[in-house]
Amino acid sequence: MWHHFDIVTYLSVALWLLGGSLIYSKNKALRVASIAAHLGATLIVGGFIIALWKNLERPPLRTLAETRIWYSLFMGLIGYAIYLLYRQKWMLSYSAVMGIVFIVLTYTHPDTMNKALMPALQSVWFIPHVIVYIFAYAMLGMASLTAFYGIYRYKKGQETSSIFAVIDQLIKVGYVFLTFGLLFGALWAKEAWGHYWTWDPKETWAFITWLGYLVYLHHKYNHNERKPLQSFVIVGIAFILLLVCWFGVNYLPTAQMSVHTYSG
Questions:
Q1: What is the pLDDT of residue 263?
Q2: pTM listed for this prediction
Q3: Radius of gyration (C-alpha) of the chain in whole angstroms
Q4: In the chain, what percentage of residues exceed pLDDT 70?
Q5: Where are the chain's structural domains?
Q6: CA 156 to chain centre
Q7: In this structure, are residues 22 and 94 in contact, taking their beta carbons and an 8 Å threshold?
Q8: For the domain bounded by 1-111, which CATH number is listed?
């Protein structure tokens, strides 16, 4: 099945590029075509995930490459949802670019795909824990990168309230899923290793990431939109923590002690 991924890459990249560019056209028909292209690319990636799931006879969630495909799918879906809610054309383009990035990274850095699934992963909590976390990371990652755009607009003296509204909504939804991810992980750990929490390096950085976005929510509750730059910076720092938790922890000296590191 994996040998078909080049076709998936070419088609999804072409459609996302088409959709991300035509959305700015003054012609209504072209704008409709851009949305159709964006959804087409997203559905192609989703279809490949389903086909890969059937081919591997397990959920394609074990390796880093497999999770990147899910990120592409969720980026496409989230971008379309934000466009429908806020009519922010740039979000459709932005999500298309992020989807392309993850697809191309997977194409250039594939993992070995096999049907093996270690005993610890053969749990009822495996699928909900990983999918919930991937969706949370996609939401928070998009919010965090949007915050950098907010900083740019703030420095230019441009309006930031619309950017702030998008970021706030993404973080609220993403944080809920992040919290459920932690809870599902604790239940899974109890089933697999007999303990809800062991301060494994991955667990520790997951908790630090959770606290990072909690700082944003606390700051927003106290200051609302009165201090947008501070909010954008906090979200940016939280994103760095998220990146460390996601794959940076694999390169830390303590990674060898972790049971959460990805392997090909």
A1: 46
A2: 0.83
A3: 19
A4: 91
A5: 1-111, 119-253
A6: 28
A7: no
A8: 1.20.120
